[in-house]
Amino acid sequence: MKDSSWVWIFKKDGIPMVSAVFSSLENADNWLKLNKLTGVLTKMPIDIGGYEWCIQNKEQMLEHYHYENGIR
Hints:
The chain is an alpha+beta fold. It has helices at 25-35, 50-56; strands spanning 6-12, 20-22, 39-45, 64-67. 25% of the residues lie in helices and 29% in strands. The protein has a 4-stranded antiparallel sheet with strand order 2-1-3-4, with helices on one face.
């Protein structure tokens, strides 16, 4: 994986917009546990689309985690 700038983006189930953006997985994980949220947390590169990043790095998908009631 190339060294890039990243953020973690959380999208809550049933909500069309992004719910939160975090600088680290640890911060996101703690917040999701505290608030017992359900949705998907995705590590997104900055200044490049996720699709383009996957093509350039020969990856099938971005790192992501599914949460249910704050549990990964």
